[in-house]
Amino acid sequence: MVNKEEILPDREFALDLLKILKIPLSVRRHSEKVADKAIEIAQKIKKVKVDMNLIEIGALLHDIGRTKTHGFKHALIGGKILKHRGLSVKLARICETHILGGLDKEDAKKVGLPERDYLPSTLEEKIICLADKHMAGTREVSIQERFNRWFGKYGKTKLLEKSKNRIEKIQKEIEELM
User: Fold this and answer.
1) Burial of 66 (0-12, 13-18, 19+ CB in 10 A)
2) What is the domain count for the chain?
3) Which of 37, 63, 73, 94 falls 20 to 30 Å from 11 in CA-CA distance?
4) Is the pLDDT of residue 4 over 70?
5) For 71-112, how does the pLDDT look when each residue is reduced to its tens digit (9 = 90+)?
6) In which domain, by residue range, is 13 found?
7) Cβ atoms of residues 130 and 174 within 8 Å
8) Residue 163 and residue 150: Cα distance in Å, rounded?
């Protein structure tokens, strides 16, 4: 018997699932670019083993919750969609932890999510979270550029500043494994 945590679809299944669930084409293209960027980051890591299949499929499905909303809850909804379909719990965690730089209990409550941590903890979660922040739609951007855009749109809030610090910490942690 295969453990549910280990069930990972292949790329074709993941892309088909996004189409079946009517994820907008722009979001599907973004997800493909995030997958490409995540794979690029992961391939540079030499000091530890990275689950490349989880990286690819997790990045492709990280925004699957956008079938229902483009707000913060898309992370939680995405996790529920994947769990409901019997897919890996690891994929669900990638969905839940990719928003901003992850959210702690306090920040989750502020944005209307159930009060618990949504912080990326595994290397694969961190790689996908970082890769997602490097993609503005299908265009690659620096972390500074990504956050400058958000600061301009939403203001230099405490939430966004904490998020930027988390992402920079994740980036440094990953670079130390290269």
Assistant:
1) buried
2) 1
3) 73
4) no
5) 999 999 999 999 999 999 999 999 999 999 999 999 999 999
6) 4-175
7) yes
8) 11
Q: At what angle do helices 52-61 and 11-20 cross, to 10 degrees?
A: 10
Q: What is the pLDDT of residues 27-72, one digit of tens each?
A: 999 999 999 999 999 999 999 999 999 999 999 999 999 999 999 9
Please tell me the predicted confidence (pLDDT) of residue 7: 73
Residue 72 is part of a domain; what is its CATH number? 1.10.3210
Residue holding tokens 């299944």?
A: 13
Structure tokens at 53: 């299949």
